[in-house]
Design brief:
Helices cover 72% and strands 0% of the residues. With 112 residues, the chain is an all-alpha fold. The protein has a domain of 57 residues. Helix 1 crosses helix 2. The chain starts with a helix and ends with a helix.
């Protein structure tokens, strides 16, 4: 079983390096192909492309954590609302209307 790790770990590292290289190249080529002609921005280097790829992964990626919709929040909310009686549901709606009231305040409604 231990011998298997000697082959998998280097392959994993090689795969990550290959992904970084290809990703940096793709970002660099796309940037240099699109943005200088369209907006007049300067071309970027491979390292800047790799930095942009990392930045986008940090800002927009899920980091291997739960993706959107996987937390079960919607499912739990549907179950909770499904167990409510019509009276409880109306009481809940009324409480939400009172809490998040967007109607104009009396001072805004007055005309001068």
């Amino acid at each position: 079983m231990k011998r298997k790790w000697y082959f998998i770990a280097p392959l994993g590292i090689l795969g990550m390096l290959l992904f970084a290289f290809i990703g940096g190249e793709v970002v660099m080529y796309l940037w240099n192909w699109l943005l200088p002609p369209l907006f007049g921005w300067r071309p970027i280097t491979f390292w800047q492309g790799l930095g942009l790829l990392a930045l986008c992964r940090i800002l927009f990626g899920h980091h291997g954590w739960r993706g959107p919709g996987r937390s079960g929040f919607r499912q739990r909310w549907k179950e909770r609302c499904g167990r409510m009686t019509p009276e409880e549901r109306e009481k809940f709606r009324q409480a939400m209307r009172e809490r998040w009231d967007f109607s104009p305040s009396p001072s805004e409604g007055k005309e001068q």
